[in-house]
């Protein structure tokens, strides 16, 4: 569903910032990581090596590793040691390279942010296939979050939730079974879902499409325009992999 590509895209963009990326390799052979780990500033192979690396960094660090270190308990021990050393400049990103179906609501334990990937989006080639309803972040629940951002998030999720319910009706009975009063909701939900696709920089050689980065302020403006019907004249295909639209 594009998990490793999303990781590669994040690491590519981190290179434009002051962040240092540290990648702790999982045990075993993972050929799917070829071309991705090379994007990290530092690659480590053991917990001890990682501890030494993280404690020696003065700048903000993005630490990337696999779920297997959660299962083994080694990551928890590492985090406890970092807390004891008052290391507070590390943000952890976890991936799951097991290939197993994740059926837990919180498969990695307590996280601030969880991106759940969606097989339905992936099957329709809509990437990144991040589920817009089940993905969540405690950061977006914080009292310091901009009120406009919070409200737009709520409205967007409400629209997409109803759109997905209507999609199941269309899949079985066709568009003619959607009530006239719901047709606008369906069409705007379809447009919003299409807008959330993103042309990745790391996929340029595969897609032939130039990668784009859209600022948060622009994203909020675009989402608001879709919700309010200001781009109803645009087709779904025009919104896919478009970057910004306003």
Which outline best applies? elongated
Averaging pLDDT over every residue, what do you get? 91
Instruction: List unreliable stretches of 5+ residues.
Output: none
* Whole-angstrom Rg: 20 Å
| Estimated share of beta-strand residues | 5-15%
Give the termini separation. 29 Å
Number of strands: 6
Q: How many H/I helical runs?
A: 10
For the sheet with most strands, the description reads: 4 strands, parallel
* Helix and strand run: HEEHEHHEEHEHHHHH
Structural class: alpha/beta
Kindly report the spatial arrangement of strands forming the biggest sheet: 2-1-3-4
Q: Helical percent range?
A: 40-55%
Your description of this structure?
This protein is α/β, with parallel strands linked by helices and 246 residues long. Helices cover 42% and strands 10% of the residues. It has helices at 3-14, 47-55, 68-71, 74-84, 119-123, 147-173, 180-195, 204-207, 216-227, 236-239; strands at residues 20-24, 42-44, 61-66, 90-95, 113-114, 136-137. It has a four-stranded parallel β-sheet, with helices on both faces. A two-stranded antiparallel sheet has the order 5-6. Helix 2 (47-55) packs parallel to helix 4 and helix 6 crosses helix 9. The longest helix is centred in the middle third of the chain and has 27 residues, at 147-173. The radius of gyration is 20 Å and the shape is elongated. The chain starts with a helix and ends in a 7-residue tail after the last helix. The mean pLDDT is 91.
Brief write-up:
With 246 residues, the protein is an alpha/beta fold. It has helices at 3-14, 47-55, 68-71, 74-84, 119-123, 147-173, 180-195, 204-207, 216-227, 236-239, and strands at residues 20-24, 42-44, 61-66, 90-95, 113-114, 136-137. It contains 10 helices and 6 strands.
């Amino acid at each position: 569903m594009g998990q490793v590509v999303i990781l590669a895209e994040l690491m590519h963009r981190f290179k434009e910032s002051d962040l240092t990326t540290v990648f702790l390799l999982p045990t075993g052979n993972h050929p799917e990581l070829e071309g991705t780990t090379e994007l990290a500033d530092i690659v480590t192979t053991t917990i001890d090596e990682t501890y030494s690396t993280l404690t020696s960094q003065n700048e903000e660090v993005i630490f990337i590793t696999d779920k297997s270190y959660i299962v083994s308990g080694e990551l928890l021990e590492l985090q406890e040691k970092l807390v004891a050393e008052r290391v507070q400049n590390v943000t952890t990103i976890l991936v799951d390279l097991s290939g197993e179906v994740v059926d837990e609501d919180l498969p990695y334990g307590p996280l601030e942010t969880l991106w759940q990937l969606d097989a339905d989006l992936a099957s329709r080639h809509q990437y990144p296939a991040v589920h817009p309803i089940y993905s969540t972040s405690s950061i977006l629940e914080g009292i310091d979050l901009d009120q406009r951002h919070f409200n737009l998030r709520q409205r967007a999720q409400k629209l997409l939730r109803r759109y997905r319910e209507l999609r199941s009706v269309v899949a079985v009975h066709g568009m003619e079974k959607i009530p006239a009063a719901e047709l606008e909701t369906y069409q705007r939900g379809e447009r919003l879902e299409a807008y959330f696709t993103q042309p990745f920089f790391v996929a340029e050689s595969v897609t032939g499409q130039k990668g784009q980065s859209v600022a948060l302020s622009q994203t909020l403006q675009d989402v608001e325009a879709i919700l309010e019907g200001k781009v109803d004249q645009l087709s779904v295909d025009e919104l896919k992999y478009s970057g910004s639209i306003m």
